[in-house]
Amino acid sequence: MKNEEGESIKKIIERRIENEGEEEVICIKEVNQNINRIMTNQPLTRPLRALNKSCNFRKKYEEVFNYAHEENLKEEVKQKNKEYQQKPEVKKKNKEYNQKPEVKKKMREYQQKPEVKKKRREYQQKPEVKKKRREYSRIRMRNILNIPESKWRI
Q1: What is the value of pTM for the model shown?
Q2: In contact, 46 and 34? CB cutoff 8 Å
Q3: Is residue 36 a contact partner of residue 28, using CB atoms and an 8 Å limit?
Q4: What is the pLDDT of residues 16-54, one digit of tens each?
Q5: Is the pLDDT of residue 140 over 70?
Q6: Rounded Cα gap, residues 137 and 139, in angstroms
Q7: Number of Cβ atoms within 10 Å of the Cβ of 60
Q8: 109-137: average pLDDT
Q9: What number of other Cβ atoms are within 10 A of residue 57's Cβ?
Q10: 44: how many CB neighbours lie within 10 A of its CB?
Q11: Cβ count within 10 A of residue 34
Q12: Dihedral sign, CA of 132, 134, 137, 141?
């Protein structure tokens, strides 16, 4: 079998095998196109093995993959941190630390800064925060007075 230029397929295959060890330069346009194809589950323009040889492709892929899955990672880290903070030994350690006089003094000083006071005041003025605070105080008051919710009218 021969192609249009008269070169046999056998020679083409031999030439490809010879050039296999050499790194072929892939342009940015093709790299971006293949990244988009990966994200949309479409077939690639070149074999993945050939694309992975390109440093540009690997860097771009890692950058896009990390960005696309960053939110999932953040949620995972939050969940693990929350679980860690709920352990009794960690709670005890934090409580002991926060009871130290120097830590208390430092927190008091921080809370007295004008910019911190302003920030807290602004936060407390938000409607959703006011609503949540009101609801919490309502539930707390009901529990203190031991009034069933059906009879509570405030």
Answers
A1: 0.40
A2: yes
A3: no
A4: 555 555 556 677 778 788 878 877 888 878 787 777 777
A5: yes
A6: 5
A7: 16
A8: 94
A9: 21
A10: 14
A11: 22
A12: negative
Integer-rounded Cα Rg, in Å, for the chain is 32
Give the tokens for residue 144.
């203190």
- The two three-digit tokens of residue 93, written as one number: 């350690």
Q: For residues 61-98, b (16+ Cβ closer than 10 Å) or e, as one string?
A: beeeeeeeeeeeeeeeeeeeeeeeeeeeeeeeeeeeee
Amino acid at 16: R
Can you give the chain as a three-state secondary structure string? CECCCCCEHHHHHHHHHHHCCCCCCCCHHHHHHHHHHHHCCCCCCCCHHHHHCCHHHHHHHHHHHHHHCHHHHHHHHHHHHHHHHCCHHHHHHHHHHHCCHHHHHHHHHHHCCHHHHHHHHHHHCCHHHHHHHHHHHHHHHHHHHCCCHHHCCC
* Mean pLDDT of the 122-135 span: 94
pLDDT at 139: 86
Residue type (1 letter), 114:
P
Residue with tokens 């020679």: 11
Q: Please report the pLDDT score of residue 20 as a whole number.
A: 54
Residue with tokens 């999932």: 72
Report the interhelical angle of 114-124 vs 101-111 (nearest 10°). Answer: 70
